[in-house]
Specification:
The complex is a heterodimer. By secondary structure, chain A is an alpha/beta fold. Chain A contains 8 helices and 13 strands. In chain A, strand 11 (229-234) and strand 12 (239-243) form a beta hairpin. In chain A, helix 4 packs parallel to helix 5. In chain B, the strands form 8 sheets. In chain B, strands 9, 10, 11, 12 and 13 form a 5-stranded antiparallel sheet that branches. In chain B, a hairpin with a 2-residue loop joins strand 28 (541-548) and strand 29 (551-559). Chain B is elongated, with a radius of gyration of 30 Å. Classes of the chains: A alpha/beta, B alpha+beta. The interface between A and B is medium-sized, with 27 and 24 residues.
């Protein structure tokens, strides 16, 4: 039976007059891996920071399960925020004390041959990401929040990063929430995909069902208006239709070549659809 | 977290200490400041440096973390906002207090005369600046902006504080001089006003802190203007409330200590406050006299009449039938001397107009009491224009022509002027301490001598000197200010000097012939009543003695009375004494010091 770990209820976050999160509701289950996608400024990072207590909602509440203490929430944000004047050793000492960590695993740091006496501000973006991850992993987090960081590091470090996250998921079954713009390397990680737009969720589907519910039709002709289409792309020779929600009846009623697509394209369809809608 | 904060503060403190120790070396080696000792340059620099330290400690609450791009990480730590605040503020508060203790130690040991500003104003600015800077530390990401805003807020804060004080002063019609408002800047911790101003300041400061703590509950990484809106939404009403509360507090508080009591020579206890009625207790009944009276300072008593000045008016109070007349009221642009002189049926006082830096239109005013007819003698003398408070200390007649002797107190030369009734004015010398005119003798002081002179052919000739007793200060009247009714021949006067020693000056032999070493205070009432209060702090006992013919006579002992304690006060008058223990007032009348029931 799934266990409710985080409950986001009617949360609103504003920056000035702009609504960043608009009365948003979300439940995260224990061990669930969630991918949040959406356009820039859709509110993805704000949601993650709200769950991590870095941003406090103007309205609504974010409740954690009684089993989770705040020291079991780990966040790696796009800013990779740490006390930069610390050396790596000082940073580890500080983090382990603040989060009451007994054992610290130096594997990632050693693999990259990082000197513990160098200052954090002298690390490259990739090294800093891996260093930050090793701090978070030491917390043995029950909720891991990863915000738009994977695409900024090189392929080798990215692989190391993802391996470490997957290893943690295998060992500890944390709830993982990832915000990302590229999905090819993490396609198999999420159990659930959320797409945000203007501070709200426009899609919340299980990864397995999403592939069945969204199909692409490539055709030279227009498809009937009755076919639900989230995004349409036209070129001189053909037209692409992203049909959602797709079901077998639709195939019988309006026969077309409904093709399955990967996660990258699925998200692109929803995000692209929003741009088109805005233009109209 | 606490360790990190302490480390950050220690590093800053180390730089601060090195900087403040080296600054005098730099100033002296570059001859920007020359011919001064290291400490005399260091101490004022240290005082001003501490203001910077208070500002730094407040404004850097989050700017260090912001500078290290660590604010998100800081907020992701498993601490509540309140705990985070405590962990951030605690080391800063300790450092601010530690430096304050160092300041106090240096100030008390060697720095008092070297300080750039008094300990009271320093303490008020130092603590206020720290708390204001802390309260504003989250309103901007920029340290320079925070510093400027904090300093500006400090100015507004003190401006409003004094506006509140002035509101109280104006609404209660309390004269400026009686408030000693300058105590706040010149150093009197024991002043009533200082205490209440500091407490009012704390009330006003609490609005900054409360708004900050309440808005900090929702502090996050969003732009500062989001926090600011919340902060000022809370700050505005809280500040207005605290401002009103601090003004009301001052209004109530400044009253305390200004209810004054006076015991007349015919044993009537007069209770007065500013611009209010008199309450006169005669031992059986309390009589209320309607009017806008004030405290009775430097009065003049003759038979049942009591004359005194308050707020440009000269009052004449009949202490038998309780009728009170305003003998004279000066025009609003003028002031009259608090000390005046009476001979026969004439009252003499100085009236003058205060200009920006000096006095103008100075006149000696003679009033014939029965007819209230005024005679004005203009005194156009440069010394009187500058003098803080000219003191009339004698009057007499030579060949039927009256003159007055005026000492230009606090003037740098302490000159003595002789003013003739026809307006003629002569400078007849100077006296380092308040001179006396007794038995047709002029007694003046130099640094080392006490000089006795007599008028001869239009000038004063010295006929006797006392040396080696130079520090004795002989006086007449309340607070040694002469209040003369008539020139009554005297046999002896008493004086005191630091030590403390008390001495009798035999006016027949003109020698100082009795010296007592005592701990206490001497009170003298013209003509010739001298009393002494001995305060035994160890046994908490106060004894009242009478000085007569060189001998001390114990009149009464008050066990459990230490008048040096803030809540107690012992006042001596010609008619007896008043003992104030908090709000309990008791009056005892001479000669046996029997308690006056009221």
């Amino acid at each position: 039976m799934s266990q409710k770990f985080v409950e986001v209820k009617n949360v609103c976050v504003n920056i000035g007059r702009k609504k960043i999160l608009d009365n948003i509701n979300l439940e995260l289950q224990k061990g669930e891996a969630v991918l949040i996608a959406g356009r820039n400024g859709a509110g993805k990072s704000t949601l993650l920071k709200s769950i991590a207590n870095i941003i406090l909602p103007d309205k609504g509440s974010i409740k954690l399960s009684k089993d989770i203490s705040r020291s079991k929430i780990g966040i790696i944000s796009d800013h990779l925020s740490l006390f930069e004047n610390f050396t790596l050793k000082q940073g580890i000492r500080f983090h382990t004390a603040a989060f009451h960590i007994e054992d610290f695993d130096y594997t990632l740091i050693n693999e990259l041959k990082m000197s513990l006496n160098q200052k954090i501000k002298h690390l490259s973006a990739g090294e800093r990401t891996l260093y930050h991850l090793s701090l978070i992993l030491a917390q043995k987090p029950e909720i891991l929040l990863i915000d738009e960081i994977i695409h900024v590091i090189d392929p080798y470090l990215r692989e190391q990063f993802l391996e470490a996250v997957i290893d943690l998921m295998d060992r500890c079954h944390p709830t993982v929430v990832m915000v990302n713009h590229t999905f090819s390397e993490i396609e198999k990680i999420p159990d659930r995909v959320l797409v945000m737009e203007k501070g709200q969720f426009i899609l919340d589907e299980k990864r397995e069902t999403l592939g069945e519910k969204l199909k692409k039709v490539t055709s030279e002709d227009e498809i009937p208006e009755e076919v639900p289409c989230v995004f349409k792309r036209e070129s001189s020779y053909f037209k692409e239709y992203y049909v959602y929600p797709f079901n077998e009846e639709l195939k019988i009623k309006f026969p077309n070549d409904y093709k399955s697509i990967n996660l990258n394209e699925i998200v692109k369809a929803f995000v692209g659809g929003q741009y088109v809608e805005e233009r109209i | 977290m606490l360790k990190k904060e302490f480390n950050d503060i220690l590093k800053l403190a180390l730089f601060f200490i090195i900087g403040i120790l080296l600054l005098p070396v730099f100033l002296m080696s570059t001859r920007i400041i020359a011919n001064q000792s290291y400490f005399s340059v260091f101490f004022p620099a240290f005082q001003f440096g501490l203001f910077f330290w208070a500002l730094l400690m407040g404004a850097s609450l989050f700017s260090i973390d912001r500078g290290q791009r660590g604010i998100e990480y800081l907020l992701s730590l498993p601490y509540s906002r309140l705990k985070l605040l405590v962990l951030k503020i605690l080391p800063r508060l300790i450092s601010v207090l530690a430096f304050y203790i160092v300041f106090v130690i240096l100030y008390r040991s060697v720095g008092e005369n070297l300080a750039a500003i008094s300990s009271v104003s320093f303490s008020a600015i130092y603590i206020s600046l720290f708390l204001i800077a802390i309260s504003l530390s989250a309103i901007s990401d920029n340290f320079v902006v925070l510093s400027v805003v904090s300093l500006f807020s400090l100015c507004v804060f003190f401006g409003l504080l004094f506006l509140g004080s002035w509101f109280v002063v104006l609404t209660k019609k309390i004269p400026y001089y009686s408030l000693n408002i300058n105590d706040f800047f010149s150093g009197g911790w024991d002043s009533d006003l200082t205490g209440f101003t500091l407490l009012a300041a704390l009330i006003l400061l609490s609005s900054f802190l409360m708004s900050f703590i309440l808005s900090f509950k929702k502090f996050d990484v969003r732009p500062a203007k989001i926090f600011n809106r919340r902060f000022f939404k809370l700050f505005t009403p809280i500040f207005i409330f605290c401002f009103i509360f601090s003004v009301l507090f001052s209004y109530q508080g400044i009253d305390i200590g200004y209810k004054s009591y006076y015991l007349t020579q015919n044993h009537k206890l007069i209770e007065s406050t500013y611009y209010s009625d008199f309450k006169i207790h005669d031992g059986e009944k309390t009589h209320k006299i309607k009017g806008e009276f004030g405290p009775i300072w430097f009065p003049l008593e003759e038979d049942e009449y009591l004359y005194y000045t308050f707020d440009r008016k000269i009052f004449k109070l009949n202490t038998l039938n309780y009728a009170c007349d305003v003998l004279y009221e000066a025009p609003p642009e003028k002031e009259i001397s608090y000390q005046f002189w009476k001979y026969d049926q004439t009252i003499t006082f100085i009236e003058r107009k205060k200009a920006k830096k000096h006095f103008t239109d100075i006149q000696l005013v003679l009033m014939d009491i029965p007819s209230r007819k005024l005679t004005r003698i203009p005194i156009d003398h440069a010394l009187l224009k500058k003098s803080h408070q000219p003191v009339i200390f004698g009057t007499d007649k030579i060949e039927g022509k009256r003159f007055w002797l005026i000492w230009t107190e606090r003037n740098e030369d302490n000159q003595i002027l002789k003013l003739w009734e026809d307006g003629g004015i002569e400078n007849i010398g100077k006296s380092q301490r308040s001179p006396l005119y007794i038995n047709n003798m002029l007694i003046t002081y130099t640094e080392k001598e006490m000089i006795f002179s007599k008028e001869k052919a239009g000038s004063y000739e010295t006929f006797h000197k006392i040396t080696n007793r130079e520090r004795f200060h002989f006086g007449l009247g309340y607070f040694s200010l002469p209040s003369n009714l008539n020139n009554i021949p005297l046999k002896e006067i008493y004086g005191w000097k630091k030590g403390p020693e008390y001495a009798r000056l035999n006016l027949a032999t003109l020698e100082i012939d009795e010296i007592h070493v005592l701990k206490g205070h001497l009170y003298c009432f013209y003509p010739g009543d001298y009393y002494f209060t001995e305060i035994d702090k160890d046994n908490v006992t106060t004894k009242i003695y009478e000085f007569k013919e060189g001998k001390l006579k114990l009149l009464k002992s008050f066990p459990d009375l230490d008048p040096t304690r803030a809540e107690n006060r012992l006042s001596l008058f010609k008619g007896g004494i008043i003992v104030e223990r908090g709000k309990r007032i008791k009056a005892y009348v001479f000669p046996e010091l029997i308690e006056l029931k009221f």
